[in-house]
Amino acid sequence: MGKLRDNLLTIMTLVGVISGLCLGLGLKALRSDSPWSQREANYIGYPGKIFLNMLKCMIIPLIVPSLIAAIGQLDLRTSGKIGSRAVLYYMSTTCIAVTMGIILTISIRPGIGGDEEGAEQSANNRNSTTVDTLLDLFTNCFPPNLVQATLQQYKTEIIYPGNEIREDPKTGAMLDPSDLQTWQMTSSWSSSTNILGLVVFSIATGIAISLSGEEGKPLLKFFQSVSHVMMKLTGWIVCLAPIGVCFLIAGEILHMKSVLEELVKLGWYLFVVCLGISLQGGVILPLIYSIVTRSLPFRFIGNMGPALATAFGTASSSATLPVTINNLENGNKVNPVIARFVLPIGATINMDGTALYEAVAAIFIAQLTGMNPSIGQIIIISITATAASIGAAGIPHAGLVTLVMVLETVGLPSEYVSIIMSVDWLVDRFRTLVNVLGDSFGAAIVAHLCKHEIDEGKQADTFDDLVGGDGGDNQDGEELSLIGQHTQVSKAQQEEELVKVIIPEKPKETDKFAYHTSRDRVKCVNM
Fold this sequence. Notes:
Blueprint: H1 2-6, H2 8-30, H3 38-44, H4 46-57, H5 59-72, H6 80-108, H7 116-124, H8 130-140, H9 146-149, E1 153-159, E2 166-167, E3 174-175, E4 184-190, H10 195-211, H11 217-238, H12 241-255, H13 259-293, H14 298-303, H15 305-314, H16 317-331, H17 336-349, H18 352-368, H19 375-391, H20 399-409, H21 417-449, H22 451-459, H23 463-468, H24 475-487, H25 491-502, H26 518-526
Antiparallel strand pairs: 1-4, 2-3
């Protein structure tokens, strides 16, 4: 019963997918002689549209606080090399996953069916150049108004000069219809959320909170609380997925001209995602581990078996975290300090499988709609997918919220998420498995790189650190320092006193009153 309850959402979502397929195919078969109109199909898919609007509503409240809390809780000053190496590893592997997903999707082209004319027309109707698109990308990273960033994106457009070469009345330059570089430029604001600007602001705010120390903790707790509440609310919305998916799929089937052709495309999409995830988890990550640690990864992966099985079963990297820590410490003998510091960071910001899946899904949907993404748009997809994977909550199906964000950023129809959701229950498990495996490899690599620092830290735990250092949680060091301040004894005498503190002599019968704990002796000296 416990396992059934844990997987109830996945089972119900799968039932919703099957129900949507049956409903859509059944309704389409009822009117095989005449196709369904767009209005009628929209009516069937209306409950799914409401569910999709709920997901869109959670984009900003979920992503912004999650990013700020994830980065703000990193102790950038005191964690030193451990934290920096962990973040560098996680960001590097995420970028590799996104790049590989984009290359596979562009090469295999799973969404290309027969709308080549639409793709060509979409490419020709773009009133901007590649350079303008890249500059717009950088401009949107720094929005002039955060409120405006939640509603609009900056966009550069070029104005068609007409069929004949003419002179620009402002500059005197010649406007050539065949040369886009000579056309006049204008700027506009498109009605879509500037996710990149919000992400950059969130990252900068998180870094500022981390560097602010105690003064930044109240604000950090606020964003952590908001993030927790938004994750709870997202969980409620995700519970409606079976109903929403059912009607979304039914509505999309009624919109399709050829159902079989679309199912073939979906099969190719599933193949590309599984291929990318397999390459990331079975080749890239083990190769990085072997190069850095100079050891084979097979035994390491075998010892992580329980954690990987839990990840596949629960589809949640956060729920798998206790098992992952246990396997790392007991099975692979990773230093507990490294494991318990690095793994929570990885469970928050390292989402290799999610980043790859979102990049593949975005370009696949672009291919389905007949859109030919430019280089600038592909770069936007890669950056947005990376940022979205960092802000993705470690709960099942939370990647759907961030996928909608990626689609909104590049102007793709979010309704096509319903096609992705039909196989998301399976893809979600594979990408969570790769996420957990990447977290584990990261902890092992950081532990290997920081081995000398950890050994030096243990050897540095000497008398000078206890007396003259910050003290940390070592009360005896603090107390002995107080003794030295009040009695002004020599260092040799302090060392003798330290020996008495650590290894106290057995009290004599006549000297019971003089025998105190180290804390009591400090009090006596202060008196």
